[in-house]
Amino acid sequence: MFYSKRKKIGFAVLFLGTLTIGTIFAFGKGHGGFRRGFGPEGFPSPFLIERISKELGLSDEQKTQAKAILESSKERIKPLMDQMKQNHETAKNLGTDGNFDEARVNEIANQQSETMKQLFIEKEKTKAQLFAILTPEQREKAKQMQDKFAERMKGRFGKFGEKPAPSE
How far is it, in rounded angstroms, from Cα 69 to Cα 2? Predict the structure, then answer.
């Protein structure tokens, strides 16, 4: 249960935060992703970035600026993701001996909460930096793309990772 909640929250923060706006921008080819979509640590692949970049019509200068912003964000997010993973590993075996250590569970939950808060802050910082390099027209288009993406994800995952209600 802990893993699935952590996974959903982490996925939501990174996926929506990084992709919705932060990953709407291209930051050049050669950035290793392992499939079409997302690469390591939830960052988008070059394929996805290039596609979104074209839709927004980013200039070469904007791509360069976006690349710098995303690389900086990635450097700040990686230790947070490592902390999330470490907390998960620490919590994985809690209670498997039949004992509940409430103090330890609270300690890990507080660490996860603080890490999630920092991830949220990083997402918002990256989003603001990226929107700052866009023209007003590109900002509007990015907002529309963000809304469309959120709607598609809502259809796939429901609200906060819940399964969508069956169609009538």
Answer: 32
Compute the distance between CA of residue 52 and CA of residue 117 in angstroms, rounded to an integer. 27
Taking the CA atoms of residue 52, residue 128, residue 67 and residue 65 in that order, the dihedral angle to the nearest 10 degrees is 110
The answer to whether 130 touches 21, Cβ cutoff 8 Å, is yes
Q: Are 6 and 88 in contact (CB under 8 A)?
A: yes
Cα distance between residue 19 and residue 42, in whole Å: 9
Give the residue among 36, 38, 46 at the shortest CA–CA distance from 18. Answer: 38
- The predicted model scores a pTM of 0.64
Tokens of 122: 């990083």
Three-state secondary structure call for residue 99:
coil
Distance CA 5, CA 11 (A): 10
Closest by CA to 80, choosing from 117, 46, 49, is 117
Instruction: Tell me 25's DSSP state.
Output: S
- Most confident stretch, 17-21, 74-78, 148-152: 74-78
